[in-house]
Amino acid sequence: MKAIFQIVRLTTFLLVAASLNNLYSADDKKGAVVVETYCKGCHQIGVLGAPKLGDKKDWQKRAEKGFEQLVQHAVNGFNSMPAKGGQPALTHNEVENAVANLLTAAGVDYADNPGPKAEPKQKTASKKTQKTVVREQPTKVEKKTQSKVKTRVGNSNRFNRLMKPREQWNPAPAKDGIHDPDNEGTYLLQKPKEAFADLNKSSSGNRVDWVKALENKLISPRFDLNDPDKEAFVMDLDIVREVKGSMPDVVYPHKQHTQWLDCSNCHPDIFIPKKGANQISMASILMGEKCGVCHGKVAFPVSECRRCHSKSKKIKSFGN
Amino acid sequence: MKKSILRTTFFITASCLALFFTNPVQAEYGDIVINNYSDESGMRPVVFPHWFHRIRFRCKVCHADLGFKFQAGGNEINMLKIIDGQYCGACHNGETAWAVENCNLCHSGKPGTPIQVHGSTVQKLTPASSPSNN
């Protein structure tokens, strides 16, 4: 009986260990990881004629050019293949490993090349010069990961362990836990990181400051379904709400709201358009009512206290 | 015997907790999962990315002009309404945006994902309402 329990425990341990390993091997430089993380996006379904994962026919053609050539194409870009698959942080070796992995996965025997580890000794001279050129950029990244390894801090003791580390922000749809990675369409969806690259940054929500992005004209969302030139009806009126306690008073700007919304979105269903007529509390906002209909769902979340509570109160002095 | 059961239960619970904290679902803030009819019809649930749409349209277009309520799953959208040009169908008609035959671009969620506003405060405060995703 005891043995059965021990087996159950051991299996659970192994399962958890395996999944943890999967989750945190992002720094790993193995070809399989690079393929899974970066290459799959296009090579899974063959976007723009990319050779498909595991398709021997597709890969055989490419392999005939020689492994070195193939790696060069992957590193520097070729036809629709962007340089390093659009991931400049990848090192030459990582790309090389990935190519080797892709070929192996397709069952292609790339005989005229020695594989990623055993490099031909005769070629070292030309190879070296090539590598120094290509490697100039990624050395920083390499150094970083090296120092990471040196500290040997386990994931359970990492800084702010319950917060998402920056590299996990805005994951691609296939890796976000909600989209189905087995669905082909998932790979055609735009990646948020790509869309947000040029927009103003923020530390919460989508990690984008949408109001600033709109003000700076980095995005130009239509105000009308069909007419791209229709301007928003903007009303510039601040409403100050005095709040209890020591929190600064709330300044509600109609301007930023009317840039996005129509009056009818809020009035009269959510807010009665009359000063003093609306009871608002943080409790109701947290539960998705009043301001919480948007803030805490799509507009910046309630953790950004000072963006609303922005008007300092006059401090009364006591004792005089 | 009892001890063994207790220890095993404890171990499994601890492991689940470890996974819970280390394997957070991390889709975009404001992604809406709509699963009114999808699961029962054998389709993947719909994932609506707010971020993608707000780059292209102001909130007003959908939430005032097209009549989308501010409630995940509250609009009772079905394919018939979409083909009739209501809701998503106002744009996803092959003119403004790609048409309905691209089923798996919208129906792209993991089967069984409950209706939710992903990453919302309510979701964080009431994990019971969304058992599989926090």
Secondary structure: elements and pairs:
The complex is a heterodimer of chains A (320) and B (134).
Chain A: H1 2-23, H2 31-43, H3 56-63, H4 67-76, H5 92-105, H6 124-135, H7 139-151, H8 192-196, H9 210-215, E1 238-241, E2 249-253, H10 254-260, H11 263-266, H12 282-286, H13 305-308, E3 309-311
Antiparallel strand pairs in A: 1-2, 2-3
Helix pairs in contact in A: 2-5, 4-5
Chain B: H1 2-22, E1 31-34, E2 46-49, H2 50-56, H3 59-65, H4 79-83, H5 103-106, E3 116-117, H6 121-125
Antiparallel strand pairs in B: 1-2, 1-3
Q: Can you give a write-up of this model?
A:
Chain A has helices at 2-23, 31-43, 56-63, 67-76, 92-105, 124-135, 139-151, 192-196, 210-215, 254-260, 263-266, 282-286, 305-308; strands at 238-241, 249-253, 309-311. Chain A is mainly alpha-helical and 320 residues long. In chain A, helix 4 packs across helix 5. Chain A is elongated and about 80 Å long. The model of chain A is unreliable at 16-28 and 114-136 (pLDDT under 50). Chain B is mostly helical. Helices cover 37% and strands 7% of the residues of chain B. Chain B is globular, with a radius of gyration of 19 Å. The chains are: A mainly alpha (320), B mainly alpha (134).
Unreliable spans of chain B are 15-23, 130-134
The total count of strands of chain B amounts to 3
Name the overall outline of chain A: elongated
Reading side by side through the largest sheet of chain B, how are the strands ordered?
2-1-3
CA-CA gap between termini of chain A? 78 Å
Largest interface: A-B, 64 and 62 residues
What sort of overall outline of chain B do the alpha carbons produce when their principal axes are compared?
A: globular
Major beta sheet summary of chain A: 3 strands, antiparallel
Helix/strand structural class of chain B: mainly alpha
Number of helical elements of chain A: 13
Straight-line N-to-C gap of chain B: 35 Å
State which percent range the strand residues of chain A make up. under 5%
- H-E order of chain A: HHHHHHHHHEEHHHHE
Please give the number of β-strands of chain A.
3
Please state the average pLDDT score of chain A: 80
What is the helix content of chain A? 25-40%
